[in-house]
Each structure stands twice: as structure tokens, then as C-alpha cells.
């Protein structure tokens, strides 16, 4: 279960990929495979949640890492770099932005 807890002080990446609708599933499959096979085993990886927009023009990856240093170390791994190159080939563009989780509000 993914936990959104501001007190955890995780390093959060929200990466939005623009994609042609007929390639959305291919991109989603690539991101899923890479997360399970590459990122999942990297030190400091907490979780990733992949989202497909209803028009199939965008895929979003919401990922949590223990720290910025852990994320940056993972991106130096050759297998991770290969995944990032494959995903970039399928996507029209991507926009990775790093966030600090400040609030998480749940229903009563």
C-alpha cells in the first residue's frame, strides 16, 4: 500500500509522459516492467504508481524515494539508464518534476 505521509519526508517524482494514444499501453508496459525489474530493487526506492489519462495521451508516474541521493544513484545504474532510453523512445515527451509532499488529507 502506498502511503502519502508528509512526515516520511520522501523525495517525490511526478513524471508526466505525453504519448500517442495508440502507444499508451506500450509505454505503460515499459514503465511497469522497468519499475518491477529495475527500480524496485534499487536502494531507497519506496513506491511507484502509474496512471493513464482517460484520453490515452498521457501517462504519469508518481514515485517515492527515500532521498534525492538514492534516486540520483539509481539513475546512474546502466540498466536504469537503458529503461529511461526505451521509455523516451515511446513517449513524445516527458516532464519529470520533483516535489515535497506537504499535506495529505483523507476522508473521515
Explain how this protein is built.
GO terms for molecular function: monooxygenase activity. This is Antibiotic biosynthesis monooxygenase. This protein is α+β, with helices and mostly antiparallel strands and 108 residues long. The chain has one domain (18-95): Alpha-Beta Plaits (2-Layer Sandwich). The protein has helices at 24-37, 68-74, 78-90; strands spanning 11-18, 45-52, 58-65, 93-99. It has a 4-stranded antiparallel beta sheet. α1 (24-37) packs antiparallel against α3. The two termini are 19 Å apart.
Topology:
Blueprint: E1 11-18, H1 24-37, E2 45-52, E3 58-65, H2 68-74, H3 78-90, E4 93-99
Antiparallel strand pairs: 1-3, 1-4, 2-3
Helix pairs in contact: 1-3
Please summarize what this structure is:
The chain is 31% helix and 29% strand. By secondary structure, it is an alpha+beta fold. It has a 4-stranded antiparallel sheet with strand order 2-3-1-4.
